């Protein structure tokens, strides 16, 4: 059999299968994929922890514009986590967030608006402490958050508010 005849038979076979599947009024059955539901730990690692790190790194550089942005993102991340996982080990997550992190985040926002480095450092330490207090309250005292010791985002300049020129964004030249 020539390759062109073999190709025609393959196409005809596929077409016949498709016609048979759709003749029944529906699409061919697909294997159901399980939904992915991130755990509280997944969400904290994906949405909260990187923002805490970026705040610490940008705080060292006193990049007030970026700090205002990242503080807002951190607050929103906590709220999204509480909506996604409303209860954890019989704890109301929105209540935990409100009780532990709201006031430290408010003080962080105030320090950023005032562009006051000492107040920022103190408020950031409070936010970090609030994270650890929450972890203890949820039964995870082994999860200890600290001020970042290393630069974790080599592809992002958290030190200045200056934007990279658009012409150099892809090539780096």
Do you know the CATH topology of the domain at 40-146? Four Helix Bundle (Hemerythrin (Met), subunit A)
Radius of gyration: 26 Å
Look at the helices and sheets and give the structural class: mainly alpha
Query: Count of helical segments?
Result: 6
Query: Architecture of the domain at 40-146, CATH level 2?
Result: Up-down Bundle
Shape annotation: globular
User: Are there runs of 5+ residues with pLDDT below 50, and where?
Assistant: 163-173
Q: How much of the residues is beta strand, in percent?
A: under 5%
Query: How would a textbook summarize the main sheet?
Result: 2 strands, antiparallel
End-to-end distance, in Å? 56 Å
Kindly report the spatial arrangement of strands forming the biggest sheet: 1-2
Mean model confidence by pLDDT = 84
Instruction: Assign a percent range to the helix content.
Output: 55-70%
H/E element order: HHHEEHHH
What's the β-strand tally? Answer: 2
Task: Please give the CATH class of the domain at 40-146.
Answer: Mainly Alpha
């Amino acid at each position: 059999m020539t390759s062109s005849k073999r190709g025609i038979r393959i196409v005809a076979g596929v077409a016949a299968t498709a016609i048979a599947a759709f003749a029944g009024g529906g699409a061919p059955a697909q294997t159901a994929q399980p939904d992915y539901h991130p755990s509280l730990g997944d969400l904290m690692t994906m949405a909260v922890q990187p923002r805490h790190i970026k705040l610490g790194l940008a705080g060292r550089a006193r990049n007030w514009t970026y700090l205002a942005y990242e503080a807002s993102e951190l607050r929103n991340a906590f709220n999204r986590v509480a909506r996604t996982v409303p209860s954890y080990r019989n704890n109301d997550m929105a209540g935990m967030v409100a009780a532990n992190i709201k006031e430290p985040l408010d003080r962080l926002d105030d320090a950023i608006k005032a562009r006051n480095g000492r107040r920022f450092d103190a408020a950031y330490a409070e936010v970090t402490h609030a994270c650890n207090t929450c972890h203890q309250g949820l039964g995870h005292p082994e999860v200890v958050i600290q001020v970042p010791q290393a630069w974790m985002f080599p592809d992002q300049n958290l030190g200045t508010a200056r934007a990279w020129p658009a012409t150099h964004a892809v090539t780096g030249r």
